[in-house]
Automatic annotation (TrEMBL):
Xref: SUPFAM superfamilies: Chorismate lyase-like, Winged helix' DNA-binding domain
Location of the HTH gntR-type domain: 1-65
GO BP of this protein: negative regulation of DNA-templated transcription
Native source organism of the sequence: Clostridium bornimense
Official protein name in the record: Trehalose operon repressor
Keyword annotations of the record: DNA-binding, Repressor, Transcription, Transcription regulation
PROSITE patterns associated with the record: HTH_GNTR
Alphabetical list of InterPro entries matching this protein: Bact_HTH_transcr_reg (IPR050679), Chorismate_lyase_/UTRA_dom_sf (IPR028978), TreR (IPR012770), Tscrpt_reg_HTH_GntR (IPR000524), UTRA (IPR011663), WH-like_DNA-bd_sf (IPR036388), WH_DNA-bd_sf (IPR036390)
NCBIfam families reported for this sequence: trehalos_R_Bsub (TIGR02404)
Gene Ontology MF: a single term: DNA binding
Signal sequence annotation: none
Length: 233
């Protein structure tokens, strides 16, 4: 782990650049005074976590880490994620309105089409490129008022710290789809024809479903990460 973390820091600090070849296993053994087994374990972890690509007979090469690591488990706001990165990140509120949901949105919220719902459409800019389109639908009976400033800053911070509600858990579905005209309108697609779609159903601590979100990601900028432990039945 110590060797892994040292190399990760070198990659993240750009001591090792994208496409750079790492030192050989023997050179790493000598540099860090460790066994070949330790070197190989560290390199395997680096590869599994998206930092390097190992090529048989050629060595290990640094990958482009100019991506967000989005946890596929846990409930984290975009603001909380963005605070981990030093890149220039900005949120733009494209739509904020109170609507009566259509059939599909009502189904996502497990409610009726007569239930007033906030529709919030936001784009997320990463180093000057709009690469996420977030479409949030929030039941008005839980969140009576919303403003552009709140939506630009953090919905979850407002819901928890101002309204005093407790967000407990979420269910997610992750798919890859063809990009729509809406995606191409709002995002800098750079010629990509596919989009990563994350649908989230978010619940309060009393098990009330209050939010349905469709988050659409340009595929080159994001890695979705999770941790799983095997338990035998």
């Amino acid at each position: 782990m110590k060797m892994y973390n040292i190399i990760v820091n070198k990659i993240e600090n750009r001591d090792y650049q994208t496409n750079d070849k790492l030192p050989s296993e023997k050179e790493l053994m000598n540099q860090y005074s460790v066994s070949r087994d330790t070197v190989r374990k560290a390199l395997n972890m680096l590869e599994q976590n998206g930092y390097i690509q190992k090529s048989k007979g050629k060595g290990s090469f640094v990958l482009d880490i100019n991506k967000f690591n989005f946890p596929s488990s846990g409930v984290v706001s975009f603001k909380e994620l963005a605070e981990k990165y030093s890149s220039n990140i900005e949120t733009f509120v494209e739509v904020l309105e109170c609507i009566y949901p259509n059939k599909n949105i009502a189904k996502g919220l497990e409610t009726s089409e007569s239930e007033k719902t906030w529709k919030v459409v936001r784009t997320r800019s990463f180093d000057g490129e709009k690469v996420i389109l977030d479409k949030d639908y929030i039941l008005k009976k839980f969140v009576d008022e919303l403003t552009y400033d709140v939506c630009k800053d953090s919905l979850y911070e407002y819901i928890e710290n101002v309204l005093g509600l407790k967000i407990a858990y979420a269910k997610r579905e992750i798919t890859v789809q063809n990009a729509t005209e809406e995606d191409k309108k709002y995002l800098d697609m750079k010629g990509f024809e596919m989009i990563v779609v994350v649908r989230s159903y978010t619940y309060l601590d009393d098990t009330s479903l209050f939010q349905y979100t469709e988050s659409r990601h340009r595929p080159d900028k994001f890695i979705f990460v999770d941790f799983a432990r095997r338990h035998q039945c």
